[in-house]
Amino acid sequence: MPDCVGDHIILLADVHPLIVEDCRLHAQTTYDHGEYEVVAVTAAECTLLPLVERLQPHFVLLDLLHASGLHTIRRLTSANPSCGIAVMIGARNQDSVAAVFSSGASSILHRTDVPAELFDAVRAVSAGRRFLSSTILSKAVGSESEVKQPRREGLSSVDELVLRLTSRGYPSSRIADTLGLSVGTVRLSIAFLKQMYRVRTKRELKAYTTETLCES
Predict the structure, then answer these.
(1) Residues 169, 166: Cα–Cα separation, whole Å
(2) What is the third-level CATH fold of 149-215?
C-alpha cells in the first residue's frame, strides 16, 4: 500500500500496468522531477474510498471496466470534492459519456488516449474545467466536425463545441443530440459559459459569442 501524501498525486485505480508505465514515463520525461507522482493501486470500492481519504490525491483515474459502477464515482466525489475524478472507457458510446459526466466525473479518457492526454485532463480539472479525450470527442462531433476551431483559453473541448453551436442558434436539445450528451450536461455547460462571459441569458451568450467568433 503506498504511503505518499501530496497535492500532485495521480491515483490510477485498477488501470492496466502497461498504461500505468506509459503514464509514469510521460510524467518523468515531460514534467519537472516530482511534479506529479503516479500511484497505481488495485482496489475495490470498499478499500478505494479510505485510500483516497488517506492519500488525498489530486486526481483519480478509474477504469470503468473494473470499477464497481457509476455509484463509485458519486461516492468518491462526495467523500473528496476537491479531487478530480476521471474515468477511462474503451468504447465511444455517447450514452456512457453522458452517464459518467452526470455521475460527477470531471474527465473522460478513451483507453488509447490515457498516456498522451492524462496530464491535459489533470490541468483542465485544476483550472475548473471538464475534459473529454480526443478519440471520444471526434466520435461525438460526427458530422458537425466543421464547427471545430482552435480552442479558446479556459474552455474544455466540450464547452468550446457547446459555445460554437450556441452561436449558431442551436437549442440545448439539438446541441445534446449533436454532441451525444444529455440535455442536462449541455445546460450545465451553458451555465458555466454564461458565468465565464458574464452574461445572464442564453440570448446574450449567443449575441456575445457570435460577435467574438466573427472577430476571431
Answers:
(1) 5
(2) Arc Repressor Mutant, subunit A (1.10.10)
